[in-house]
Specification:
This protein folds into 2 domains: about 210 residues, Fructose-1,6-Bisphosphatase, subunit A, domain 1 (Fructose-1,6-Bisphosphatase, Chain A, domain 1, 2-Layer Sandwich); about 130 residues, D-Maltodextrin-Binding Protein, domain 2 (3-Layer(aba) Sandwich), CATH 3.40.190.80. About 35% of the residues lie in helices and about 20% in strands. It has 12 helices and 14 strands. The strands form 3 sheets. Strands 3-4-5-6-7-8-9 form a 7-stranded mixed sheet, sandwiched between helices. It has a 5-stranded mixed sheet with strand order 11-10-12-14-13, with helices on both faces. Helix 1 crosses helix 3, helix 4 packs antiparallel against helix 5 and helix 10 runs parallel beside helix 11. The protein is globular and about 60 Å long. Bound molecules: adenosine-2'-5'-diphosphate (A2P) and magnesium ion (MG). This is 3'(2'),5'-bisphosphate nucleotidase.
Length: about 375
């Protein structure tokens, strides 16, 4: 078999059967060929970790003393803060500094339109000061002071549409802005797409405890917070503290009995259908109450075995963005987990800014996925017939 046809075989969308049957021989030998040609993204990963950690430093500073004037409302009524803009400016600036001779493409959540309006000068100056102070505190990139125009340019470096060809960085500068404003969980989520596939992901979760947040371990004596999760395709997932501890390899939970599972869902009730999640949990015999936290910190927590399942069912018509799942999905899959839409298809990050999904996103380990898919299918059918 040629490498090309072999790659086609392994990249086909897969359904329930993928998780329950052993792989056919041809697919196993394929994996060997593929793994022998896997690229290394070490340099990009190091740059992404550095950029996300810097952005986390800026966000922490803002969250500690959030001013009313730091929070504004976007056209869709969702909040945006000086830290969202500052984080995006820092990451965009840092990545361009690291790879000056490569074409730069960044798909990111924010743009500078509102900052260029009359009356926004003070906010823009505050963001620029935050960015400069953060760069200076780290001594990173050996750069002179950025002007407000430099900051606008860096933010608008994130205007790419992504797609299936070439390399694209994908950034949510603050995922879970509502959690950030509340003083709760949020994440800086940065991923790299290469030819439409996520090849690395970094999640900086400044408020996530290093110890488990689920079950008995949540009462651990280690109450340090601030986690950095990172994953590269074919190389596993690691977690370290944002203060710089040695990375440890993490794995999703190995539990096989769904009755022992606990599941994550959004803190914000409007982001996911809770009635559907609770029906699914009931079918699986899950006894523990849902764990509700904001942002892709859920993917990070799952990757290290806190809980076993993540359920996300946005209202009909809501279109998920790639920056809300790219980093989180590779962090979980490289830790041995599975991330699919509600019909069991892998997420496709190659179609631009949005994901085209069937009904929602579900995440768990390989062993529990067949039962979870069955419970999701039955619950969706029941909900549809009761309308
Ligand atoms: N109505 C909605 N349904 C689902 N997700 C939403 C909705 N509105 C906003 N979001 C996204 O949910 C993310 C937070 O997820 P979580 O609920 O897991 O904390 C936010 O980044 C936000 O994306 P964005 O701000 O990019 O539009
Ligand atoms: Mg987001």
């Amino acid at each position: 078999m040629t490498i090309i046809s072999c790659l086609r075989t392994v990249s086909k969308p897969s359904l329930i059967s993928q998780f329950s049957k052993p792989k056919p021989k041809t697919q196993q030998s394929c994996s060997l060929v593929v793994s022998s040609i896997v690229m290394s993204y070490d340099k990009e990963l190091a740059a992404a970790k550095k950029a996300a950690s810097l952005a986390a430093r800026l966000c922490l500073k803002v969250q500690k003393a959030l001013l009313q004037s730091d929070v504004q409302s976007k056209n869709d009524k969702s909040p945006v803060t000086v830290a969202d803009y500052g984080s995006q400016a820092l990451v965009s600036f840092a990545l361009q500094k690291e790879f000056p001779s490569e074409p730069f493409s960044l798909v990111a959540e924010e743009d500078s339109k509102d900052l260029r309006q009359d009356g926004a000068q003070e906010t823009l100056e505050r963001i620029t000061k935050l960015v400069n102070d953060t760069l200076a505190s780290d001594g990173a990139y050996n750069t002179s002071t950025l002007s407000t125009e430099d900051v606008i340019r860096a933010i608008d470096g994130g205007k790419s549409e992504g797609g299936s060809h070439g390399r694209h960085w994908v950034l949510d500068p603050i995922d879970g802005t509502k959690g950030f404003v509340r003083g709760d969980q949020y994440a800086i989520a940065l991923a790299l797409l290469d030819e439409g596939k996520v090849v690395l992901g970094v999640l900086a979760c400044p408020n996530l405890p290093l110890a488990s947040i689920v079950g008995d371990n949540q009462h651990s004596s280690n109450n340090e917070v601030g986690c950095l999760f990172f994953a590269q395709v074919g190389a596993g997932t690691y977690m370290q503290s944002l203060s710089g501890s040695l990375p440890v390899k993490v794995q999703v939970t190995a539990i096989e009995n769904s009755e022992e599972a606990s599941f994550f869902e959004s803190y914000e009730a409007a982001h996911s259908n809770r009635d559907l999640s609770s029906l699914i949990a009931k079918k699986l015999g899950v006894k523990a109450p849902p764990v509700r936290i904001d942002s892709q910190a859920k993917y990070g927590a799952l990757s290290r075995g806190d809980g076993a399942i993540y359920l996300r069912f946005p209202r009909k018509g809501y279109r998920e963005k790639i920056w809300d799942h790219a980093a989180g999905s590779i962090v979980v899959t490289e830790a041995g987990g599975v991330v699919t839409d509600a019909a069991g298809y892998p997420l496709d990050f190659s179609k631009g800014k949005h994901l085209n999904l069937q009904a929602g996103i579900i995440v768990t380990n390989q062993k529990l996925m067949p039962a979870l898919l069955k419970a999701v299918k039955e619950s969706l059918e029941e909900q549809a017939s009761s309308l």
